[in-house]
Amino acid sequence: MTEGLIDPRDSLERQNEKLLKITATLMRRVEQDTDASGLAYAQFERAVLLEEEIRSRTRDLERTLDLLNLSNAKLAEANRETEAARANLANAIETVQEGFALFNAQDVLVMCNSRFGMHMPDICADLRPGLRFDSYVQLVSSSTALSLPTGTPPTTWAARRMARHQDRSVMFNVRMTGNRWVQVSEHRTPDDGTVILQTDVTDIMRIQHQERERILDDQARLIRATLEHLNQGVCIFDQQARLVGWNRLMGDLLSIPIGRFRIGSRFEGIFERLRETFTFAQADIADQVADWARPRTALGDSSASAKTTADQRARAPLSFDIQQGATRVLTVFMQDMPDGGFVISFTDVTAERQAARAMSEARDTLEQRVLERTLELEDALQAAERANASKSRFVAAASHDLLQPLSAAKLFVAALESELPDGAPQDTLHKAANALDSVETLVSALLDISRLDSGRAEVHVAPLDLDDLLGQLRDEMRPIADIKGLTLRLRPSRARVLSDVTYLRRILQNLISNALRYTDQGGVLIGVRPRHASVRVEVWDTGIGIAERDRGRIFAEFQRLNATASAADGMGLGLAIVERACALLGHPLTLRSEVGRGTVFAIDLPRDAAQPKIGEALLLDAAPPRPAAAQLPQLIALLIVADTDLRQALSLTMEQWQIDVLPCASEGEARTLLAEIEVAPDVLLIDLHLGSNLSGAKVIEDLRRDLGPLPACLMSATPSPDITTLAQGLEAQLFTKPIHTEQLRSFLNDLRSPQV
């Protein structure tokens, strides 16, 4: 009846208020309207119903208020417990002896104890909840209590601190003013907040410093004890020739009271006492010693550059004898130290000298002494042979490791040549290629020297056409001559000689290269003169010539007459290789020279007995024109090289030549790849050394057995007659590392693709 008058969405108080108004209104109408139709009674009845509903709503309202009061009481209790927990947490962190701070996940300071930042009183008042972490770092970096490292501004320190804040856990020490240290520990919480602890570790750092000083003192005592136990007198001087250490035996040997030695005593004073007491075995050795021990900074100019040069001067060890009285002899040894100081040792060799004199006087023991000496020499010879064999093994092993990356580098440079624009990039690339060529030349020369010195170099003498060899060398050297503006001529002969083609090529290559290097005007002439049973090859130049006094040392290693030449002009190994190789082959080597006019090197080669004698041909052999680079046919090349850099370099080079390359590191990988793509290659390029003692020659044989008689190339860093024979037996092309791109291109250009 009242549903349309009351809105259920109103509160109970509002609904009761409406009901009371309705009841009052109805009661007034009842009192005013007393007609006989009975409306007054009906209105009274409604009022009674409304009053009952009001009581019901009032009771509901009272129950709701009771529930609300109960909820408010529980909420108040929870707030009291929260405040109590927060107070307990604050009290707990306040009892922590270290500085404590908690930042939330938004890097805002939530709470900290009173010890947080206590080491920085100038900013301590600013460390309050609500402070952002980056602002905290800026405050610390600008604090006057922070002792920053020399050369580190506050901004740099703050940037590094913020970078470390990204880590989950950080711990580091910070130096404060007053020689105090604080350890900062920073850790992430599970909700990605940050906890920071600041611990004063000054006492710990001080103890560590004291421990280091104690260790240094112990080391000093150990060194002094060691010096005292030596059976030699020893004294140590610093860079300024001031005494810094000695042992007691030195005073006994020199007959100088130990009390006269003081830290900082000058060498000159001690040496003067030595000259007064002892006689030097050599007349001028005393002056040499004084000059040798002179402080380095006192030499030459006092400017910074002169001082640097003097400090870098290396002093060779100096050894001599001094004698006191008629019999006492001391051996003195002076040795430079890396820091510029030096050490002097005194050894009493009186007994040894007396024993030597006694042995020289005992002629009847001469045979025994000779035998003993012979045995010693045999032991030394065996040791030398073992060392030489070890060196040869090392060179053989190192050659592969040296030439492998060098070959890869040259191929990468060659691959870049077609991709870089002209100008500065191309010039830089050419310089890099020239530098790699110099390295290749030096490594090859060192390997040749090692093989020749080992006494185990293998020689394979066979007939060879001299014109072919000289023509190839002329073509190789002509660009060098053109760059220097020199003429390079060849007067050939149709002679055939007996020699090892590898070593003979190296001999003639070094002679021609040496002639071009030391010739600035004119040119170089290569001539061939027939003799009775031999052929003489002569290399003439119009260079600086060789003085008589220098002709003995030009064949030694690392000797160059032109001291101003750069390392790119050679390392002085060419003529050393020539002399050793000629001696190995039995080819007489002669030299004629005149200073300022030029030099002639001549080699006598035995003539091939199967060839009839012919007259000397003096016609100039014009260089054949070089064929133009042809477009390579479409090929599929299977490349198996264990070294990653060399494999990538060869792949890149051949792909630029429009060749499809299948690069693999092993035979197993190659077979897997071929099975997947179901395509047979047209050519095999296999490294001889594939690791784990696996031979590339065996891989070629296995692949040919399964894929057919494919053309193959075998690559090796250690060329030898055995490897040459192995390649010939496989009918495979042999390439030595570093691999020359033109040789590789020529080999591939001669092949025909199965599709053509």
From TrEMBL:
Pfam families recorded: HATPase_c, HisKA, PAS_7
Superkingdom assignment: Bacteria
Signal peptide interval: none
Primary enzyme class: transferase
Modified residues (4-aspartylphosphate): D687
Catalytic activity: ATP + protein L-histidine = ADP + protein N-phospho-L-histidine
Residue span(s) of domain Response regulatory: 636-752
EC number(s) recorded for this UniProt protein: 2.7.13.3
UniProt GO MF annotations: kinase activity
Domain Histidine kinase: from-to ranges: 397-609
PROSITE patterns on file: HIS_KIN, RESPONSE_REGULATORY
Coiled coil: 61-95
Assigned keywords, A-Z: Coiled coil, Kinase, Phosphoprotein, Transferase
PANTHER family in UniProt: HISTIDINE KINASE, TWO-COMPONENT HISTIDINE PROTEIN KINASE
Protein name (record): histidine kinase
